[in-house]
């Protein structure tokens, strides 16, 4: 069974590639860095065959250990700071991971696989951002680079390092100059997913507007699932090489917006889109369009999903995902309210659980809704952990903080009281409720607790 090592496994491309390689019968190892990558569990559920291994592109010795342990036939270096806008804010980190990380991985391969007859094949995720302020249109493997961001500069370094290891050590090291490639798995910070997710939320009444930067930029957008196939094909060639991977079409952000809103059933996108210079970049890449003739001829690769198909796929997936998240949120809220009918508020007043959507018992003025979600739902109050807002009711002072949990055992985190009060004259937070500063119904003794300065009586609950 061939063995593959992927860096950047929990990113969009890593996830598609891992599934592709597993389907092709590989043993697949995904390198992850850091202590608690929150995406690991989700990726593991998605591809149970994938084995995670710790390593860091900033740490050569860890890469040597990983390559030694995995003994891969193929290494796919997808790990990077990949968000161009972030690279302007963290240029050194970007140079270190996105640029030097390539050098470190190639060194690890050279050290473990040997400087001669090294059998480990290497794929470097190069990028159309290397072309930046383009010198020719469309861009091919021969188009000179002119990067416009620290990210682009780092990718140029990684690209030429790959070429150099190929030439200097005879490594089977290939570089895929991938133009923008998107999918429902794309991070929300990238413009396509920001748009499709925003549209889904607007459609569901969860968001009013989508705020973007430069709408005139034009990109050659393909489907990430198609592009990982090209990566694999590069490493199956007898000779390593560099390839442009692109659709050969370019579209502006405006065009993307128009198609995406249309796919969600809106006639006009303009009322829903605002602009903010915060989302503009110090130096922009205006237009990219790739010529993938070489990949088509040598790799037999071509994209399967076209631009309208990609936009539709992303919009539909986001609508389904946002609907599911919203429904889940509501059912959890209802379940919580049902499971603790009398205990979920600091003030100790009960919630009504009889109806399908719980509401606070009438007369209770002590709980505020966090925010109005959508028409018709705003009045349903018990959907989030409530906050005691007794400061607004001078007769019933309270700590004003959130109860820890609406369960019978709950203590008020703020006043730390809970359980039965030992002294009849003492307070108040009795078992089965999360109260603070209000009188126990059983003792009949009210003790007033002045609201602390940190009380956020009017702040919405979260
Ligand atoms: O921006 C404009 C923005 O962040 C696309 C990465 O995968 O592809 C990607 O880089 C365009 C730019 O991707 C917003 O100014 C307008 O012109 O989705 P993006 P990118 O910078 O093209 C290449 C090939 C890579 O290698 C990268 O790793 O959209 N834009 N308004 C905006 N972009 C963002 N993110 N957010 C906006 O609100």
Question: Which labels suit this protein?
Answer:
disordered C terminus, Rossmann fold, 3 domains, globular, two-stranded parallel ribbon, 462 residues, alpha/beta, single chain, 7-stranded parallel beta sheet, binds ligand F7E, 34% helix
Instruction: Give the end-to-end Cα distance, rounded to a whole number of Å.
Output: 50 Å
Task: Please give the CATH class of the largest domain.
Answer: Alpha Beta
Domain module tally? 3
> Judging by the overall fold, what is the CATH architecture of the largest domain?
3-Layer(aba) Sandwich
Shape: globular
Structural class: alpha/beta
Overall helicity: 25-40%
What is the H level of CATH, i.e. the homologous superfamily of the largest domain?
NAD(P)-binding Rossmann-like Domain
Report the mean per-residue pLDDT as an integer: 80
Order of helices and strands: EHEHEHEHHEHEEHEEEHEEHEHHEE
Strand order of the largest sheet: 3-2-1-4-5-6-11
Bound molecules: ligand F7E
Could you give a short account of the major beta sheet? 7 strands, parallel
Give the number of DSSP strands.
15
Radius of gyration: 28 Å
- Spans of at least 5 consecutive residues whose pLDDT stays below 50 are 342-462
Number of helices: 11
How big a fraction of the residues is strand?
5-15%
């Amino acid at each position: 069974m061939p063995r593959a090592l992927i860096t950047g496994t929990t990113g969009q491309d890593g996830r598609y590639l891992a599934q592709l390689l597993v389907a092709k019968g590989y043993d697949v190892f995904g390198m992850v860095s850091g202590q608690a990558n929150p995406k690991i569990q989700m990726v593991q559920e998605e591809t149970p065959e994938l084995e995670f291994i710790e390593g860091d592109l900033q740490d050569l010795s860890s890469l040597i250990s990983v390559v030694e342990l995995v003994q891969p036939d193929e290494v796919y270096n997808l790990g990077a700071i990949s968000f161009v806008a972030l690279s302007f804010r963290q240029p050194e980190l970007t140079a270190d991971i996105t640029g030097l990380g390539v050098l470190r991985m190639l060194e690890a391969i050279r050290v473990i696989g040997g400087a001669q007859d090294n059998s480990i094949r290497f794929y470097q995720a190069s990028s159309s951002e290397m072309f930046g302020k383009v010198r020719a249109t469309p861009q091919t493997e021969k188009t000179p680079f002119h990067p416009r961001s620290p990210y682009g500069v780092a990718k140029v370094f990684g690209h030429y390092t790959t070429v150099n290891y190929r030439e200097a050590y005879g490594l089977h090291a290939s570089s895929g100059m991938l133009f923008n490639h998107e999918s429902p798995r794309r991070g929300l910070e990238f413009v396509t997913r920001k748009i499709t997710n925003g549209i889904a939320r607007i459609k569901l009444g969860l968001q009013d507007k989508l705020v973007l930067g430069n709408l005139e930029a034009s990109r050659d957008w393909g489907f990430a699932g198609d592009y990982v196939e090209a990566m694999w094909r590069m490493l199956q060639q007898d000779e390593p090489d560099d390839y442009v991977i692109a659709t050969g079409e370019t579209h502006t952000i405006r065009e993307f917006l128009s198609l995406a809103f249309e796919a969600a059933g809106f006639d006009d996108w303009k009322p829903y889109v605002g602009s903010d210079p915060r989302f503009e970049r110090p130096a922009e890449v205006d237009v990219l369009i790739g010529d993938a003739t070489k990949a088509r001829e040598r790799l037999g690769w071509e994209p399967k999903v076209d631009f309208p198909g990609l936009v539709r796929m992303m919009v539909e997936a986001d609508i389904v995902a946002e609907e599911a998240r919203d429904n889940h949120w509501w059912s959890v809220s209802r379940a919580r309210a049902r499971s603790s009918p009398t205990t979920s508020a600091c003030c100790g007043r009960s919630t009504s659980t009889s109806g399908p959507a719980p509401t606070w018992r009438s007369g209770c003025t002590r709980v505020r809704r966090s925010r109005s979600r959508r028409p018709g739902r705003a009045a349903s109050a018990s959907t989030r952990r409530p906050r005691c807002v007794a400061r607004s009711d001078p007769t019933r002072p309270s700590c004003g903080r959130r109860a820890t949990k609406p369960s019978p055992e709950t203590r008020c985190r703020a006043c730390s009281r809970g359980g039965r009060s030992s002294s009849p004259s003492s307070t108040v937070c009795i078992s089965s409720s999360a109260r603070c500063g209000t009188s126990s119904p059983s003792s009949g003794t009210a003790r007033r607790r002045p609201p602390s300065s940190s009380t956020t009586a009017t702040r919405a609950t979260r």
